[in-house]
Amino acid sequence: MEPLPIVFVSHGSPSLAIEPSPARDFLEQLGGELGQPEAIVCISAHWASAAPAVSGAARPATIHDFYGFPEELYQLSYPAPGAPQIAKRVMDLIRGAGFESGLDSARGLDHGAWSPLRLMYPDALIPVIQVSLQPQLGPAHHFALGQALAALRAEGILVLGSGGATHNLGQIRGRENLPAPQWVSAFADWLTAAIVEGRSGDLINYRSRAPYAAQNHPSEEHLLPLMVAAGAAGVGARGRCLHASYTYGVLSMASYAFGT
To answer: In the predicted model, is pLDDT for residue 37 greater than 80?
Structure first.
């Protein structure tokens, strides 16, 4: 069996779960294309901690970590099981790479995890484990964290980064029905080129090398899951773009895969 690819998806707004869009259509068919992994290790933009933590709950709750959305969203659940033994394996890999790490047996699945997974694997039968971000430590730290997770790929476990190729929510108002402005498309195009060409150094140093980097990511947490995915693939690994679209005018919904 060939190792699974490593995947990054842009999850956009929580409304992805209920609103039609090209990105939603893409995610609904992605799970079928990837096949059924033994488990999913998800690195979401919506869980941060001082050191890498691993969710160890046997039955993780569905976390509705957003406000002001339609009531329908708060009724959704994703009752995927956890996998405490796999969570321990993930923690051991992280510790073996020199990071501090621990299990969080109370952590549920935030919407960065369950929103895309509900579309990819609606039966919710595959165990899901989350790994937290450390946004204050930047891209190089997260690339190294991804390298610590690389062995999972050969064990039938899907490493899934979930964030946003662009993520400036303050610029959405008034642009919802407009094409992506040049400052968004220029960054998105640069990001895709860096991934396709395997320019790991440029990805890690995107803040100084990509056009309009700070404008597209006023804070970094939504791009850091991509750094983890790239790190799990390895230095110089070439990726490919699986999907490209925009929503709310300024959010790139691009998704990428590394490996077969």
So the answer is: yes
